[in-house]
Write a structure and sequence with these properties.
The structure is a homodimer of 321-residue chains. With 321 residues, the first copy, chain A, is an alpha+beta fold. Chain A contains seven helices and 17 strands. In chain A, a hairpin with an 8-residue loop joins strand 1 and strand 2. Chains A, B: Its EC number is 2.6.1.42.
Chain lengths: 321, 321
Amino acid sequence: MYVAKCRQGESFTQGKIVPYGDISISPCSPILNYGQGLFEGLKAYRTEDDRIRIFRPDQNALRMQTGAERLCMTPPTLEQFVEAVKQTVLANKKWVPPPGKGTLYIRPLLLGSGATLGVAPAPEYTFLIYASPVGDYHKVSSGLNLKVDHKYHRAHSGGTGGVKSCTNYSPVVKSLLEAKSAGFSDVLFLDAATGRNIEELTACNIFIVKGNIVSTPPTSGTILPGVTRKSISELAHDIGYQVEERDVSVDELLEAEEVFCTGTAVVVKAVETVTFHDKKVKYRTGEAALSTKLHSMLTNIQMGVVEDKKGWMVDIDPCQG
Amino acid sequence: MYVAKCRQGESFTQGKIVPYGDISISPCSPILNYGQGLFEGLKAYRTEDDRIRIFRPDQNALRMQTGAERLCMTPPTLEQFVEAVKQTVLANKKWVPPPGKGTLYIRPLLLGSGATLGVAPAPEYTFLIYASPVGDYHKVSSGLNLKVDHKYHRAHSGGTGGVKSCTNYSPVVKSLLEAKSAGFSDVLFLDAATGRNIEELTACNIFIVKGNIVSTPPTSGTILPGVTRKSISELAHDIGYQVEERDVSVDELLEAEEVFCTGTAVVVKAVETVTFHDKKVKYRTGEAALSTKLHSMLTNIQMGVVEDKKGWMVDIDPCQG
């Protein structure tokens, strides 16, 4: 894993690769007491010709900067972030699965470390990256069965829903467990302000399709600006769909022809059913679904099956490091 | 400090007192990645006759249980919590300041530890308590100057605002820093749903006084059920005030005669001014203020100046441990 530290008011300097293992941290640190932490998630892919590549790390680097600004933390520079991800992947290159067998999931963390008792910015920041080989995020091979949550909310305006803050995740575990114990794959949250518009799942964005129009909630503070979300929007637009970022009501969701979700972990995953109170709606999935096409388009770029005309892939130089 | 661990599905057993120092934790732990953590805050007091006492630790124990239920964590039992606090205070008894010179602040933490990659309950929980001598929380000797925040919100319905989750704190640091740089002591948040009702400060509850009526926002999910809040409500009622827990609008706040805030750290602190957009309102403070009277009543009980008829104080037996 990669570890770098920086004191408040200073900048990150070169970190180092150390063996994966527990870290040592002050019981008084803001990450342990006040949730001052951000994370990122991206993947490394092994191509058929045995190259290792990562997907749009600049986007994750940028999002960590936005999040750090929101949580009053000092982030690494864009270059430091990308370089650190590369070093981590290189150090773990034997753990990148063969093509078709999975990917190496990379988890950068920015933590408020050091010791301080009051609610305030941390005296020290730790930038850490670990990695793990992963297969499919959701265990179902077909589409997801979602429950619309009308009890819990994920985010609110003037909160941290628009950045990848650790504080957005533990609060949704209860909703997720309740839904899973009732047989659902995941939960779809509604906006806290009106309870009428859809927002996102516990850890991925959502899209609905009707005719030629693909719609997804706008990133106006309560929606995580997903890298896969952005990439899929671009790919859908490329093949002639009209992509709209706007408020999407539950009513529209229930009347959609197709629903799918996106995220680094899930990639693109069709939603088979949505349950809202007592109403259960079934959507198009399988070969005829747009999500199937978009999933292929994206993974073909990621796996090097088709040429990356967008400049999204970053090669890891095996001779480096 | 005190440390105890328990695996998921099991219960906490007896922890132990260890020297204060950094803890070792997995980079994959839910506290570092997903904010799965709760904290508490309480104080130990040294009386004139050199006894050491703590204030209502059962209330903090209960609140940690409510929080653990919300964040899907395993908490210590009420008895384990109180016993662990006592052990921690005993081990740090030389650090309890003399009467009038401050108190020993005690910080219990419940952390999602162990290693897990996905958003899920932790495989292990760590219950940890550290302590530090403290003086006044706010550096001002007179009343606080608050800014009403109309940009950020602290909590939302269906969120975690009603429990002492770490996730409620790092998101408010930005608002606090902006207010402090503009010369304010602290921020007063409005409800996220309507933006019309007052909620609380970054780390304490609020009360308004008009005539014989003392009002404070209700603990219906977005307000932290403060132990000092509850105690002060009871004391105000005891001396003939009508105490109302109900929505309090900004308009009412601006028309109040007196405003004060409560919390373990601040105890009871008068608010001197509130600024809402361009409007600045000044309130009664000093000897004539109810908050001054309530502050005396509470600290007299805590410091053993008057008899504790409510059974709030728990003595630490110096012969134990």
